[in-house]
Specification:
Order of helices and strands: EHEEHE
CATH topology: Alpha-Beta Plaits
Distance between the termini: 26 Å
Number of helices: 2
Helix content: 25-40%
Number of strands: 4
Strand order of the largest sheet: 2-3-1-4
CATH superfamily: Dimeric alpha+beta barrel
Structural class: alpha+beta
CATH class: Alpha Beta
Radius of gyration: 15 Å
Shape: elongated
Number of domains: 1
Length: 100
């Protein structure tokens, strides 16, 4: 599987009922857990003071990432995504077999 850095900004449409927002957020937490268990969601952060998330996600390719992974998130219709494909860096200290 390939890894992707995904920046997500979620904007709730004006006029959306709070119960709809709460329902989608609860469903989002459940779906994120399922995607983590399946190995698609690796890490997720929220930059301090910013209304966005930054995460490392895994998928076979960018098409799978968009259609079968991110596209299944309940908040996806309200999300703006920035996806960057990643590749291993030879100096990554977490890389298996990296030189000491």
């Amino acid at each position: 599987m390939r890894e992707f850095l995904v920046e997500i900004t979620t904007t709730v449409p004006e006029g959306t009922a709070q119960d709809e927002v709460d329902r989608r957020r609860a469903a989002e937490a459940v779906r994120a857990g399922e995607l983590a268990a399946a190995g698609h969601l690796v890490r997720l952060w929220r930059p301090v003071g910013e209304p966005r998330s930054v995460g490392v996600w895994r998928a076979a390719d960018e098409e799978e990432l968009h259609e079968k992974v991110l596209g299944t998130l309940p908040l996806r219709p309200w999300m703006t995504l920035r996806v960057t494909a990643l590749e291993p860096h030879p100096n990554d200290p977490g890389r298996t077999g990296a030189a000491s």
